[in-house]
Amino acid sequence: MHFINIISLIIILSMDTLLAANRMPENESVYQNFRIKYGQGAEKITRNIISILEIAVPEYEKFYGTDLEREVVIFLPSSLLDFHPLVFDQLPEWSNGVFVPDRNQIILKKPQWYSTDQNFTQVLRHELSHVYFHRMFANSEVPLWFNEGLAEYLSGTALDISNGLKISNAMFAGQLILLSHVDSLQDFSWNRAQLAYLQSLSAVIFLEKRLNQLGISWQDFFESVRRNGFEQALKNSLGMDPIDFEIKWYHWLKENYKWFIIFNWENLIWVVMIIILAGALYAMRYRNRKTLRRWEEEEEKSKEEQLTQSIEI
Ligand SMILES: [Zn+2]
Fold first, then answer.
1. Is the domain of 131 the same as that of 152?
2. CA 127–ligand 1 middle distance (angstroms)
3. Nearest to residue 202, comparing CAs of 142, 263, 248, 134?
4. Cα(223) to centroid of ligand 1, in Å?
5. Are residue 170 and residue 52 in the same domain, yes or no?
6. Contact in structure between 95 and 106 (CB atoms under 8 Å)
7. Which domain-ending residue is among 84, 102, 137?
8. Contact 40/78 with Cβ under 8 angstroms?
9. Domain that holds residue 50
10. 202-260: per-residue pLDDT in tens?
């Protein structure tokens, strides 16, 4: 029974691979080390990819301090059905792109297939960072949060009000993720994955601030990571081990993002209600005071009139 199941699984998988191979995008466009493979109707998005590469490639080469020696293939599958076999059906539903280091390939979903609110430029810039990161640190010990945090940092994701609020909400709910747990990213729901990405980004921003204070550039730090691994580079540069770093980052995060909780809709409604109530009370007191003053003035006036009348008499 098991044997038959295995045979049928092999047949299904081979058919899947064969079908995927038949549906491989047939058009190509090249920009420097990047070969974009796309199907019919994807000409516009391919031009968009090239314009993103034109900006990102020199930027990333400077940031990571390396160029790419091998060719990178960017696949744009023609349909969503073709996307999954290309990534061996291993990706979570929310993933809009992936970099496969062994094949040096980036595989991208078309934006109309996204189930999350990311945009195409963000996704491509994120995956591009993984390409350069892999080129730099393929043989070094590096935590996943550092890889994902840098990818988010370069993708243009900002810790704005909306993202700050996500961190703040998780903080107050006691649901922040340990940096070492970011390793299980692939098994997370989109909400948890989004939090893991934002926390990784915030840890990278914190690391950048600490390095800047000591006059250490990203490039110097990367070189140290390449030679000694992340843990030792952290010790050499900041004098911290990963636990020290996590504690200090957590305090910094708490200090900077706890106040974002007031932007929570429920809290915001309370704040607005309190302001309206205080405003109404103030208006009432002001009106009462004005009425009282008017009465006093009227009383004063009538007294004066009575006085004038008495003099006339
Ligand atoms: Zn990533």
1. no
2. 6
3. 248
4. 21
5. no
6. no
7. 137
8. yes
9. 23-114+124-137
10. 999 999 999 999 999 999 999 999 999 999 999 999 999 999 999 999 999 999 887 77
Tell which of 137, 168, 194 closes a domain.
137
Q: How far is the CA of 148 from the centre of ligand 1 (A)?
A: 5
List CB contacts of 127: < 8 A, sequence separation 6 or more: 97, 98, 99, 106, 108, 151
Span from the CA of 96 to the centroid of ligand 1 (angstroms): 10
The alpha carbon of 154 and the centre of ligand 1 are apart by a number of angstroms equal to 11
Whose CA is closest to 37, among 103, 91, 95, 89? Answer: 103
Amino acid at 285: R
Distance 173 CA to ligand 1 centre (A): 26
Residue 169 lies in a domain: yes
Q: At what angle do helices 120-137 and 144-155 cross, to 10 degrees?
A: 140
Neighbours of 235 (CB within 10 A): 17
Residue environment code for 116-126, b if the CB has 16+ CB neighbours within 10 A, otherwise e: eebebbbbbbb
pLDDT tens digit sequence for 156-173: 999 998 898 899 899 989
